[in-house]
Design brief:
Layout: H1 3-17, E1 26-28, E2 35-40, E3 43-49, H2 62-75, H3 83-87, H4 90-102, E4 107-111, H5 114-128, E5 133-137, H6 142-151, E6 154-158, H7 163-171, E7 179-184, H8 196-205, E8 209-213, H9 228-231, E9 240-244, E10 254-258, H10 260-269, H11 271-274, H12 281-296, H13 299-318, E11 330-333, H14 337-351, E12 353-354, E13 357-358, E14 369-372, H15 380-397
Parallel strand pairs: 3-12, 5-6, 5-7, 7-8, 8-9
Antiparallel strand pairs: 1-2, 2-3, 4-10, 9-10, 11-14, 13-14
Helix pairs in contact: 2-12, 4-12, 5-6, 7-8, 13-15, 14-15
The structure holds pyridoxal-5'-phosphate.
Length: 452
């Protein structure tokens, strides 16, 4: 085989589809979020970041930076080993206590990322329990899917956010078999929220464990930032709550919170936990400061929701189509990979607005978008500039609009999936979509999925 040729052909295929990924070379500027330096083709420029998962700007919060600085000074750079062999630092222990308390569970267990926590925990639980079967929401993240795939157990997929379909699938199964029902709270690309309470009630009726990924909700929802499960007071119904320290908490790392026995089981049997170096103590210290701060302060969450509302209202006024959802994620729909990249490039080059284009396999083909994530640190002026930039680029490239109250001129192309005239993607021929068939159904071999 001509290996180089193979790689080049594969990459060229991505380019011809308009979904070759180009990373923006950024330098974050401590204390200036959402501003960053962009190392572009024309040299260094200031840009405003509109697609970060540092949702609340905690990655640059003075308390977090100070905690990390102090921990580096006291403990040095790395952990020095796996958790079992000299790598457990007191900062890890404190953080696990903080996380168990956050979710009101007996214990918590840290991993090197949210991806690893899903992959390792689900893989270990499913493979360990004899005859286990996993029932998975159609919109679940790649890390959950890969964990189950690794366990090689049987899996069934239920329609996205649909307790009735879950019930149908569970009722077919042997009551004696161990079962894990897995789903997310806030879905990263559409920003919709799971009916956690109902899903848990169904799972309980059929004796299934429940596993909830709260990656896009921890720090952001609930009076202490415990996620949607805290906001809706259903934490006690969940067997496992999984989260990340890399998004609203602004640092790095993942975790599960559950019973002491379950955490101890994963700690003792999971290769993804055992055979890797522990997080640097300074990361644990920074994350601990972020979790603790957001337990006491709701200011960031309130301001954040206000910013999201302002962006959405501005988009509506300009008829720029976005998915209507109850979360902080604002998916602006372009529905074409080439145009999506073009819009993103124009925003960056001409307006200093950075929004990464999102395409397949992160979202289904035909549902390409700009995923906007306002933060509490975006000012009114930032929002006005974003909206003016979007309006100018939208007009220039003739991108789709959402239907408005006023007369449509007959020339404007209307976005079929966002706005009042929204259609079911099935009618549009979009088949690999959480609402109609499931991202679970896509072939992600060798590709990342839902990478936000
Ligand atoms: N779970 C979901 C739903 C995600 O969207 C992501 C990442 O984007 C992860 C898990 C992985 O988290 P981390 O970025 O901490 O690895």
């Amino acid at each position: 085989m001509n290996y180089e040729r193979f790689f080049t052909d594969q990459l060229n295929a991505l380019r011809s589809e308009g979904r070759y990924r180009v990373f923006a070379d950024l330098e974050r500027v401590a204390g200036a979020f959402p501003r960053a330096k962009y190392h572009g083709p024309d040299g260094l420029r200031d840009v405003t970041v509109w697609c970060s998962n540092d949702y609340l700007g905690m990655g640059q919060h003075p308390k977090v930076i100070e905690a990390m600085r102090e921990a580096v000074t006291r403990c040095g750079a790395g952990a020095g080993g796996t958790r079992n062999i000299s790598g457990t630092n007191h900062h890890h222990v404190l953080l696990e206590k903080e996380l168990a308390d956050l979710h009101q569970k007996e214990s918590a267990l840290l991993f090197t990322s949210g991806y690893v926590s899903n992959w390792a925990t689900l893989g270990t639980l499913a493979a360990g329990m004899p005859g286990c079967i996993v029932i998975s929401d159609a919109g679940n993240h790649a890390s959950m899917i890969e964990g189950v795939r690794h366990s090689r157990v049987e899996k069934r997929i239920f329609r996205h956010n649909d307790p009735r379909d879950l019930e149908r699938r569970l009722s077919d199964l042997d009551p004696a078999r161990p079962k894990i029902v897995m789903f997310e709270s806030v879905y990263s690309m559409d920003g919709d929220i799971a009916p956690i309470d109902e899903l848990c009630d169904v799972a309980e009726r059929y004796g299934a464990m429940t596993y909830l990924d709260e990656v896009h909700a921890v720090g952001m929802y609930g009076p202490r930032g415990g996620g949607i499960s805290e906001r809706e007071d259903v934490r006690h119904k969940l067997t496992v709550i999984e989260g990340t320290l890399a998004k609203a908490y602004g640092v790095l790392g993942g975790y599960i919170a559950a019973s002491t026995a379950l955490c101890d089981y994963v700690r003792s049997f999971s290769s993804g936990f055992i055979f890797t170096t522990a997080l640097p103590p300074a990361l644990a210290a920074g994350a601990c400061a972020a979790v603790s701060h957001l337990k006491d302060s709701s200011l960031e969450r309130e301001r954040h929701q206000d910013r999201v509302r302002r962006v959405r209202d501005g988009l509506d006024r300009r008829r720029i189509p976005h998915l209507d959802n109850p979360s902080h994620i604002v998916p602006v729909m372009v529905c074409d990979p080439v145009q999506c990249k073009l819009i993103s490039d124009l925003l960056m080059d001409e307006f200093g607005v950075y929004i990464q284009p999102i395409n397949y396999p992160t979202v289904p083909r035909g549902l390409e978008r700009l995923r906007i994530t306002p933060s509490p640190l975006h000012s009114d002026e930032d929002i006005d500039h974003l909206l003016d930039a979007l309006e100018a680029v939208w007009t220039r490239v003739g991108a789709m609009r959402s239907a408005g109250d006023e007369d449509i001129d007959g020339l404007t192309q209307l976005c079929p999936v966002a706005g009042p005239m929204k259609m079911d993607p099935a009618e549009l021929g979009v088949t690999s979509c959480p609402w109609v068939g499931g991202r679970e159904g896509l072939d992600f071999s060798g590709e990342a999925k839902a990478d936000a």
